[in-house]
Write a structure and sequence with these properties.
The protein has 486 residues and is mainly α. The chain has 23 helices and 2 strands. The chain has helices at 3-6, 18-24, 47-58, 61-73, 77-105, 109-117, 123-155, 164-184, 188-214, 219-223, 236-250, 252-256, 259-262, 268-301, 308-312, 318-351, 358-371, 374-377, 381-410, 417-421, 436-451, 459-463, 465-484; strands spanning 7-10, 13-16. The chain crosses the membrane at residues 50-71, 77-101, 122-143, 163-183, 195-219, 239-258, 279-302, 322-344, 356-372, 384-409, 436-455, 461-480.
Length: 486
């Protein structure tokens, strides 16, 4: 059937017609309520909605830590602020480009993966998304565990003298809280989600005010604290490029998943304007908060503290330690369950063809987070930024480059909606469900980037993992579709 009869474009949005749905049902397909595109008449997200989404994601403990971590690594406050904001702004290019697909067709990230990798080949991007979720779940659970550790230590001071053992126990306590909410499907997380962002904004304002108080209420004094000055022993440009790549990679996973959110947008202007306005501004804000907290920690306690949960633990007041730690737990809990644990659980349930019940899968995925050893990832600011985040960039860089070139240059944003859902043929079926050239390119470039971690002559590749992955993989795929395949 002519594609003109199966789908119709209304402004920025392509809708599946009744004739299109009838055509889908003539073939074996995976069309269902979950995968169905959202029609234009059911969209209600505008610029402010997509902006609020990024505010909720950017105003987080993790962004605070990464920003303050650059200070500990040797940058000045101005250099760190510039690096963080630039990185988060650049990644908006990927988020807006992939978000275009979600808005135009009302479809999800898994659907985009199927178009590019094939019906069966989607196992590769699915695993990447699951790995990212499991890793960040573990990291955030460790951060939340530090807040639990502070609360218990405020009530029983000897708890703080037992070293890693009680830190690990605190982590497990918070881990169990996350698993319980995700496995039980409790509505509590929805309630907490609504107040987590406001709580973090209030907390961040308090951090700025407290930081100023430690510097005699002088912003100039605060910004001239030794830790906010560049380390003369550190070459800024040698630090800048891997740091910039890490900052871009930090939100690279979210950028991949943007179709899941932008499919609700009423037009392309809403999704693009909402993203490019809110993300850089909120990144600037929360990064500045991290710098105030780090500088204030040095002035008040004489320590370079880049973790907010640890900073709270230094206050002598038991009430302050308990109250602020509870707020931190609430903030981390909501983003961690919804953003990091549930996505890999859903992927695992799909890959195992629902052979196990949801609670079993949730517990299994959460246990995998223990293998990520989040306590090592957060052992130092340098390790989190220049090793761990680069590893994540090595995973999502190549796949991002492939998506961008496939959607923008191979298909030129024109997608056959009927063929998307077919599982027995069509444009996106490739070799029995596998897009072999794309899969080979993805695996080869990912291995090359990882090799840069162990081969000195290739270290520059790993140090710029995400950027290299996007640019080099995208360029090779472009050459393939223009010269080799043709």
């Amino acid at each position: 059937m002519d594609v003109k009869n199966t789908q119709i474009q209304k402004g920025d949005i392509v809708d599946l017609t009744d004739a299109g749905l009838e055509e889908i049902n003539k073939y074996k397909n995976d069309y269902n309520d979950m995968s169905a595109p959202i029609p234009s008449n059911k969209r209600d997200w505008r610029t402010k909605d997509i902006a609020n989404l990024w505010i909720g994601m950017i105003v987080s403990i993790a962004v605070y830590q990464v920003a303050s971590g650059l200070l500990v690594s040797g940058m000045s406050w101005g250099q760190a602020l510039f690096t963080v904001v630039l990185g988060h702004t650049i990644v908006m290019g990927v988020a807006i480009a992939l978000g275009h697909f979600g808005t135009k067709y009302g479809m999800t990230y898994p659907t985009l993966s199927k178009i590019v990798f094939g019906n069966k080949g989607t196992v590769f991007p699915s695993l990447i998304r699951a790995i990212l979720g499991v890793f960040w779940f573990g990291v955030q659970a460790w951060i939340g565990g530090q807040a639990v550790y502070t609360i218990i230590g405020a009530l029983y001071p000897n708890w703080l003298n037992m070293g890693f053992t009680t830190q690990f126990i605190s982590f497990i306590i918070f881990w169990i809280m996350n698993v319980y909410i995700a496995a039980s499907g409790s509505k509590a997380v929805k309630v907490l989600e609504g107040i987590s962002a406001p709580i973090l904004i209030v907390l961040s304002l308090i951090v700025i005010i407290w930081g100023l108080s430690t510097a005699d209420w002088s912003l100039n004094n605060l910004l001239n604290v030794e830790i906010l000055k560049a380390d003369p022993k550190v070459d800024f440009w040698k630090l800048f490029w891997p740091a910039l790549s890490a900052m871009i990679a930090f939100d690279g996973g979210i950028a991949l998943s943007m179709p899941d959110y932008t499919r609700h947008c009423v037009d392309q202007k809403s999704q693009s304007l909402g993203q490019i306005i809110s993300a850089p501004i909120m990144t600037f804000y929360i990064s500045f908060v991290g710098m105030c907290g780090t500088a204030g920690g040095l002035l008040a306690f004489g320590d370079e503290i880049w973790e907010p949960a640890v900073l709270v633990g230094h206050f002598p007041s038991v009430a302050i330690r308990i109250i602020f730690s509870i707020f931190l737990i609430m903030a981390v809990l909501t983003t961690n369950v919804a953003g990091n644990l549930i996505p890999p659980v859903n992927i695992a349930a799909t890959l195992t063809k629902n052979k196990f019940n949801y609670k079993t899968v949730t517990i299994g995925v959460a246990i995998l987070a223990l293998l990520a050893r989040p306590w090592d990832s957060l052992s130092s600011a340098y390790n989190l930024i220049f090793n761990v985040t680069q590893l994540l960039g090595a995973l999502i860089g190549p796949i991002s480059g492939i998506y961008l070139v496939a959607y923008l240059f191979d298909y030129k944003t024109e997608i056959d909606v009927v063929d998307i859902y077919r599982t027995d043929g069509g444009k996106y079926f490739y070799s029995k469900g596998w897009n072999i050239p794309v899969i080979i390119l993805f695996l080869a470039m990912t291995l090359l980037i990882f090799a840069g971690r162990f081969v000195d002559s290739l270290s520059w590749i790993f140090n710029n993992a995400y950027v290299f992955g996007v640019v080099a993989t995208g360029a090779l795929y472009y050459i393939y579709i223009k010269l080799i395949r043709k």
